[in-house]
Amino acid sequence: MKECLRAPRAAGMIEREKRFRNAEGLAIFYREWLPEAGEIRGLVFILHGINEHSGRYRHVAAALTQAGLACYGIDHRGHGLSGGLRGYIPDLQLAVDDVEQWYRLVRAERPQQPPLIFAHSMGSLIGLGFVLRHPAELRGIALSGVAIHGERMAPAWLVALLLMVAKILPKCRLSPRGPADVLTRDEGKLREWRDDPLLEKRMWRIGTSAAMLRMARAICASVQAIRLPLLALHGGADQLTPASGAHFLAENAGASDVSVKIYPGLRHELVNEVERDEIIRFLRDWLLERA
Is the pLDDT confidence value at 291 over 50? Predict the structure, then answer.
């Protein structure tokens, strides 16, 4: 495992960059954000969405570390600084495998602090896949832009075509990603998106889109097995993933501690929206209550 100690990116926070080799030999990159002082009250594993990377959650980690929560952000295979074909995950269970290995590495270093997950969009599928494998491991999972009803954003014939073509041309970029302004109304954050060299700004690979769809269907079929505390945050103007997925989780998960919060007029990336400080505070408080 390689490690590079970096200067704190925010007051009171230490950032480290680390890597491990997964079962296939790919180098998987992750970031560790620690409070500079004080007791660590819990661990938050951050799972990013499609075609982005963990560094986009540094501001979230800064807020959480101020409250005593150590944060860990992975770059999924094919994303950010991890190995693999850019933007390509043929099966999200492979990403769950990577998260499982990463989780064990971190827990071996910090076995006492309670673990939680914060996951966005595609990351919500990977996080819920981890929960279904390990239903008793976590204290809670918080989701934004939950993607389990993503296929409802396209006509059924197009979804069927996508699944068929993905079997033949999985690595081709055939899935439209939409304009960047579907992510947030914040112009500064959109400039950051355009200037970020680690972000994939091209069309999505069709095999990754199909993998997300398959995982979403599997989660819906097993939703009653999700019994840990669950928070689903969603933008009311999200054009990439419908809020019906958050409501579906709340109504069908087997958990007794389930909360849904819909933000009217907000778009897909809630932690990058104009109102992000309020949203991140709400997320922080929910995580702390379950740490």
Answer: yes
Residue pair 182/239 in contact (Cβ under 8 Å)? The answer is yes
Question: Three-state DSSP class for 271?
Answer: helix
Phi, psi values for residue 240, rounded to 5°:
-105, -40
For the residues of 43-94, what is the DSSP string, one character each?
Answer: EEEEE--TT--GGGGHHHHHHHHHTTEEEEEE--TTSTTS-SSTT--S-HHH
Taking alpha carbons only, the member of 31, 29, 45, 85 closest to residue 205 is 85
Helix (H) or strand (E) holding 23: none
Nearest-CA neighbor of 237 among 274, 212, 194?
A: 274
pLDDT band at 73 (very low <50, low <70, confident <90, very high): very high
Please state whether beta strands 258-263 and 230-235 pair in parallel, antiparallel, or not at all (unpaired): parallel
- Helix axis angle for 156-168 and 206-221, nearest 10°, is 120
What own/partner pairs with CB < 8 Å and gap ≥ 24 does 284-287 have?
Answer: 284/63, 284/64, 284/67, 284/69, 286/140, 286/142, 286/231, 286/259, 287/42, 287/44, 287/64, 287/69, 287/116, 287/118, 287/140, 287/142
- C-alpha 19/C-alpha 199 separation (Å) is 19
Question: Which pTM was predicted?
Answer: 0.95
Q: If you write DSSP's letter for every residue of 120-183 in order, what string do you get?
A: ETHHHHHHHHHHHH-TTS-SEEEEES--TTGGGGS-HHHHHHHHHHHHH-TTSEEE----GGGT
Asked if residues 47 and 120 have their Cβ atoms less than 8 Å apart, the reply is yes
Helix (H) or strand (E) holding 249, with range, is helix 244-252
What CA–CA distance (Å, rounded) separates 26 from 291? 32
Joined together, the tokens standing for residue 65 give 């570390």
Predicted pLDDT of residue 35: 96
